[in-house]
Amino acid sequence: MSFRATVESMSKIMDEMGITELELERQFLFGVYRKHIHLSKQQSTAVAMPNLPVTGEAKNTNSEPAENAVNGYALKSPMVGVAYLAPEPGAKTFTSVGARIKAGDTVALIEAMKTFNPIKSDKDGVVKEILVSDGQAVEFDQPIIVIE
């Protein structure tokens, strides 16, 4: 089987199983090659972020109340990557629900291309909700924390 056919086959299986992360390892005589790959498909915003709308007025088109609508300011991810809520495994989280934060406080880290980028609050307030879990993959412009 050719390399292209193998990749296409693996991609189809991953898509069917809902797998979005892949860890590759290949041993050679001179060392080991390791690669972590995060796969992401374009999805509609409503599917990718079920907690929307986060800011502004909730526009409800059906007769049921909008239970997932959250009022407040949504701090959004500036990049695609993996979100971490603490500076290292087992450490105290940067913030928690109900905590008072100030503009400039680090509230999370996003790892992109093996670089940990601090995500800082751009306004003062109280953390109303944390929309991501530790180690969760996030997309560009995805709300990660709601500040009131």
Structural features:
148 residues, mainly beta, four-stranded antiparallel beta sheet, 13% helix, 36% strand, elongated
Written account of the structure:
By secondary structure, this protein is mainly beta. The chain has a 4-stranded antiparallel β-sheet, with no helix packed on it. The protein is elongated, with a radius of gyration of 19 Å. It starts with a helix and ends with a strand. 20% of the residues are buried. About 18% of the residues have low confidence.
How would the blueprint of this fold be written?
Blueprint: H1 3-17, E1 21-28, E2 31-38, H2 45-48, E3 73-76, E4 81-84, E5 100-101, E6 106-112, E7 115-120, E8 125-130, E9 136-138, E10 143-147
Antiparallel strand pairs: 1-2, 3-10, 4-6, 4-9, 5-8, 6-7, 8-10
Largest sheet: 4 strands, antiparallel
Poorly predicted runs: 42-68
Euclidean distance between termini CA atoms:
56 Å
The SS-based structural class is mainly beta
